[in-house]
Amino acid sequence: MSDRMLLGGVEAGGTKFLCGVANEDGVILDQVRIPTTTPDETLGAASAFFDQAAATHGPLSALSIGSFGPLSLRQTSADYGSITSTPKVGWSDIDLLGHFRRRLDVPMALDTDVNCAAVGELLFGSGRGLDTFCYVTIGTGIGVGLLIGGVPHGGANHPEAGHIRLPRAVGDQAFEGICPFHGDCLEGLACGPAMLARWGVPAEELPAHHPAWAIEADYIAGLCATLTYIVRPDRIIIGGGVMQQANMYAHVRRTLTDKLADYDASVRGLDMSVYVAEPTAGASAGLTGALAIAHRTITRQWPMHWAIGAQQNSVSTLAKVS
Ligand code: ADP
Ligand code: ZN
Questions:
Q1: Which residue among 112, 113, 140, 205 is best mutated to probe the pocket of ligand 1, counting the most ligand atoms within 8 A of its Cβ?
Q2: Are 9 and 64 in contact (CB under 8 A)?
Q3: Closest ligand 1 atom number to CA of residue 193
Q4: CA 65/CA 45 separation, integer angstroms
Q5: Taking the mean position of all CA atoms in its chain, how far away is CA 295?
Q6: How far apart are CA 246 and CA 10, in angstroms?
Q7: Of the chain's two ends, which shows fewer C-beta atoms within 10 Å, N or C?
Q8: Quick one: which H or E segment has residue 229?
Q9: Residue 1 pLDDT
Q10: What is the pLDDT of residues 8-17, one digit of tens each?
């Protein structure tokens, strides 16, 4: 390991790519926001950013990417490192990791955007001090990241918990759902665009007393009940645009309490006000998480000193400057 570490991180989203470089203390040295247009244009601009950063700050030590998916994350797969069958036009079968590998010879890591956001929450937000928790986003899609035993979970591939099927909420029998693969899976019924398709207006324009919100809370609480039984996490952190609706957390907590039905002592003992939490690591938790994963590929441990020494310009303040 060289004594000067330069860590690269990418938060690859359907709207924008955030790229940044940080030193070993988590101080951001440079960052850029690139609109997600075509893969050639966006990935070209991202590697140009890292070339420029290396010219200014010295060679990169590691690069980590948190991306929208689905992704192929099985290292033995022929398409390892690719975005596979995304509905995002032009981005299916794009070799994301390969693009950077062809240009940079440094250790690299790729994980889901939600796993990277979970790492951001672990270091700087509502996941601090926890061993096992879920990070859920209810936005353009529905995604779930899992931090299990202190590390992001991955198996043969990443989980796709947004696509589970739940019982229909009372009053929601007719809507067929918008998932191009499953129709009325959870994402097909409850992501932001599903609310737009069902009610004819964007979710943020629905009034607080609209019946949409009880239906939405039922699905989100249904996901939380499922995660509780499968993962039994310390906490479920829920973010994404749809959660900005006033009272959504209270609504989900109440509905989840009903669904868990006092099942057993460990579930009965849950303090819902803590168990279902808002993300607090800031809007760039995905990028901060990716940078922390880059650090971990070199040192084999999380840079906990970033969280302790968080000051101006450190990754914890990224959200304010990006
Ligand atoms: P992405 O998942 O692409 O990162 P967001 O997490 O910002 O995007 O989620 C976008 C979705 O959130 C949109 O479908 C939008 O209608 C919905 N949304 C944004 N603001 C609100 C709000 N205040 N209340 C409810 N839904 C909202
Ligand atoms: Zn689906």
A1: 140
A2: yes
A3: 14
A4: 15
A5: 18
A6: 31
A7: N
A8: helix 212-231
A9: 46
A10: 999 999 999 9
Q: Which two tokens stand for residue 218?
A: 């039922």
Identify the nearest ligand to the CA of 141 by its number. Answer: 1
Rounded Cα distance between 296 and 268, Å, is 36
pLDDT class of 317 with cuts at 50, 70, 90: low
Residue 194 has pLDDT above 80, yes or no: yes
Average pLDDT across the chain, whole number: 94
Domains annotated on the chain, with CATH: 6-117+297-321 (3.30.420.40), 126-277 (3.30.420.40)
Phi and psi for 189 in degrees, rounded to 5? -100, -25
Q: Is the CB of 36 under 6 A from ligand 1?
A: no
Give me ligand 2 centre to Cα 182, in Å.
Answer: 4
Ligand 1 nearest atom to the CA of residue 245, by list position: 24
Residue nearest to atom 13 of ligand 1 (CA): 192
Residue with tokens 């057993």: 264
* Sign of the dihedral defined by the CA atoms of residues 300, 304, 305, 307, in that order: positive
User: Do residues 43 and 273 lie in contact, with contact meaning Cβ atoms separated by under 8 Å?
Assistant: no
pLDDT confidence of residue 155? 86
Residue 281 phi, psi (nearest 5): -85, 0
273 C-alpha to ligand 2 centroid (Å): 29
Asked if residues 31 and 50 have their Cβ atoms less than 8 Å apart, the reply is no
Q: In angstroms, what is the span from residue 266 Cα to ligand 1's centroid?
A: 33
Q: In the predicted model, what is the mean pLDDT of residues 291-316?
A: 80
User: What Å distances lie between residue 131 and 43, 146, 266, 284, 305, CA to CA?
Assistant: 34, 11, 16, 22, 18
Q: Which of 23, 20, 27 is nearest to 2 (CA)?
A: 23
CA 240 to ligand 1 center in whole angstroms: 6
